[in-house]
Amino acid sequence: MLSLPDYPGLVFILSFVTMWLSARVGASVLRRFRRIEDDARDDFGVIQAATLTLLALIIGFTFSMAVGRYDQRKNYEEEEANAIGTEYVRADLLPAADAAAVRSLLKSYLDERVQFYTTRDDGDLARVNAETSRLQSAMWSAVKNAAAAQPTPVVALAVAGMNDVLNTQGYTQAAWWNRIPYAAWALMVLIGVCANVLVGYGARGLKASAGLLLIVPLIVSLSFMLVADIDSPRGGVIRVKPLNLHALADSIRTP
């Protein structure tokens, strides 16, 4: 099920409005209660700079978390393609009838894995997951029956290869579930709000700084949108493409 970070455009709009309102609150509301005295402006500048630096660090760390998860999803896509391709070749080690059955199942399984990476529809994803589970059971039964009928070290290689196929799918699913925690998002938004309040509070004139008060909210919102885009497996523009699985499918179907 998709959540707010799965819609980077919406994240940008909501965060920009929130950050801009925070800056306006600091510039218009807080300054009515107490203005910054000239002798205290240096101390305020230190606090403001420290808060903005902390915000930059938090965004940087969160961006690093998102990139790490994106790289993990890419690596597991490559591992899935390698495992399926290896098992397709190792099917030659099985008896002819079992080998044909395993290869047919692997072709259907490969199509489902490609669909898993490309679909954005929840209903289609549920169908893909159900079909994937069914094909996994069928493939495991095929190699298990062959190993039971002919328990040799050669057939055991095909069984081990099928085990790798099943394992890599589990690793992939775990990687897609591994997202930036909501607590990290909440902390980042809270620090962003505080930073923009201080930016607005430190503005010397509301009319003169009206345009300048858009800069920090815009930059922070763009950063949030980029983090959400990279962290979301199915939302946004930056997604893992099953290039290795596509290449494997083309090579299998090439006579």
Summarize the structure.
The chain is 78% helix and 0% strand. The protein is mostly helical and 255 residues long. The chain has one domain.
Major beta sheet summary: none
Q: How large a portion of the residues is in β-strands, by DSSP E?
A: under 5%
Shape: rod-shaped
Distance between the termini: 40 Å
Number of strands: 0
H/E topology pattern: HHHHHHHH
Given the helix and strand composition, which structural class is it? mainly alpha
Query: Would you identify the regions where 5 or more consecutive residues have pLDDT less than 50?
Result: none
- Rg, alpha carbons: 27 Å
Helix content: over 70%
Instruction: Compute the number of structural domains.
Output: 1
Total of DSSP H or I helical runs spanning 4+ residues = 8
Look at the structure and give the mean pLDDT.
89
Pfam family, one: Bestrophin-like
Protein name: DUF4239 domain-containing protein
Transmembrane segments: 6-23, 44-67, 182-203, 210-228
InterPro entries: DUF4239
